[in-house]
Amino acid sequence: MDFRYQAVNAEGQAADGRLSAGGRTEALRLLQQQGLTATVLESAGAQGAPAIKVREKASAQDKRLVMRELATLLKAGVPLGEAVESLADAHAASRIGEAFVRVHAALRAGERFSGALSGAGLVLPDYVVQMASAAEMTGKLADALADAATQMEYEERVREEMRNALIYPSVLVCSGIGATLLIFVVVVPKFANLLKNSRADIPLLSAWVLQAGMFVKEYLLWLGLGTAGLIFAGIAAFSNPQVRMRAWERLAHLPLVGRWLVEIETGKWAALLGILLENRVPIVRAMELAQEAVRLVYMRVKLQGALRDIRAGKRLADALAATGILVPTGINLIRVGERSGALAPMLRTLATLYESAARERLKRFLILLEPAAILLIGAVIGTVMIAIMMAITGLSTSPH
Q1: What is the residue-wise DSSP string for 10-33?
Q2: How many whole angstroms separate alpha carbon 151 and alpha carbon 154?
Q3: 393 vs 70, which has greater pLDDT?
Q4: Contact between 144 and 134 (Cβ < 8 Å)
Q5: In 252-342, which ranges are continuous DSSP H helix?
Q6: Under a CB-based contact definition with an 8 Å cutoff, are residues 96 and 66 in contact?
Q7: Do the Cβ atoms of 120 and 106 come closer than 8 Å?
Q8: What is the pTM of this model?
Q9: What are 222-241's pLDDT values in tens digits?
Q10: pLDDT value at residue 54
Q11: If you write DSSP's letter for every residue of 214-237 in order, what string do you get?
Q12: CA dihedral 209, 215, 218, 219 (to 10 degrees)
């Protein structure tokens, strides 16, 4: 079987051509024997035959795992160049493998690891490169990469918890809408003839429900298309970072949910700042990187004010106390950390406290949400059924 390929060698130079192999796996192995890492591999059969793409988008999980793998190899005593080359081979024919081929080529050319990683085309959080750059001066690159992977895991866990938290209310809302729609489409139209009965004394509520049911049944297709259009428009809007930021800002001012979001963002900020300081990143640069990870605009503005105070010579605890972002317990932890020289561990402790508080608040929110959603759905369905029964009663009691 013939394949067409595009690849890069150890120096990062591109190459392309054709080769014969028994399958895709064998083709990849043959390319590796030639010192090439495939970026695209496709069948060279008849024109129009589907191509077999081996280039995969690097997910956040892939990036986190490869940072953890690299830290593990370095801690085991594997030289940096060999570790990078090993990862390039292990992740061949993927975006991760392609990026590490470039890193390896840059290292062989004499470039520092942080610079090579920054120019490899692998989109990583800014703090990863900064931590690697600081660690190169202290000789603790393995520890820095392990800490970076830990922070990436923390951010991924926060995103996962937020997604999971949205699943349950989404199911409740969708089931309620579905049940109400079923009643309007199937049940309510069966009683629509009551509106045409001149002898029936139909209450106003019953008339509204019956008319709404007829409207929904008649224009069900257009209503469905309109709803689908709104959903797609919402998805397209939320793909814009500015729209997402404004949405987070609105949610942050809601009761229960708002405080939960603030605690999540504060915990993430404290964890990242602690890791950066622990890896010898200067406090001003560490504050800049940590505030960039915060999604709430008003928190960013307050943190920028704290950063100005720090540049003017204030201590971190005093600068943060003026913003009102942290509770007194958090300010005291930071102040103790500054006095004892253990600021980074204190920030880690603060992050753990906020993470625990956010989890507890989420549990309480879900406990309240379930009965509230059930009561709301029951109230809507009950109102519809009462309206129908009132219409039937009006017909039975009307004079003949």
Answers
A1: TTS-EEEEEEE-SSHHHHHHHHHH
A2: 5
A3: 70
A4: yes
A5: 257-278, 283-292, 297-311, 316-323, 328-340
A6: yes
A7: yes
A8: 0.67
A9: 888 888 898 888 888 877 77
A10: 45
A11: HHHHHTHHHHHHHHHHHHHHHHHH
A12: -130
Amino acid at 373: A
Closest CA to 390 of 194, 246, 222, 129: 194
Q: Say if residue 195 is exposed, middle or buried (CB neighbours under 10 Å; 0-12, 13-18, 19+).
A: middle
CA 141 to chain centre: 27
Task: Examine the pLDDT at 47 and tell me if it is beyond 60.
Answer: no
Q: Buried b / exposed e across 340-349, counting CB within 10 Å, b at 16+?
A: eeebbebbbb
Structure tokens given for 262 = 């603030």
Q: What's the whole-number average pLDDT of the chain?
A: 81
Distance of alpha carbon 270 from alpha carbon 291, whole angstroms = 10
Cα–Cα dist 184/208, whole Å: 12
Residue 336: band (very low, low, confident or very high) from pLDDT cuts 50, 70, 90: very high
Which two structure tokens, joined as six digits, stand for 225?
Answer: 């298309």
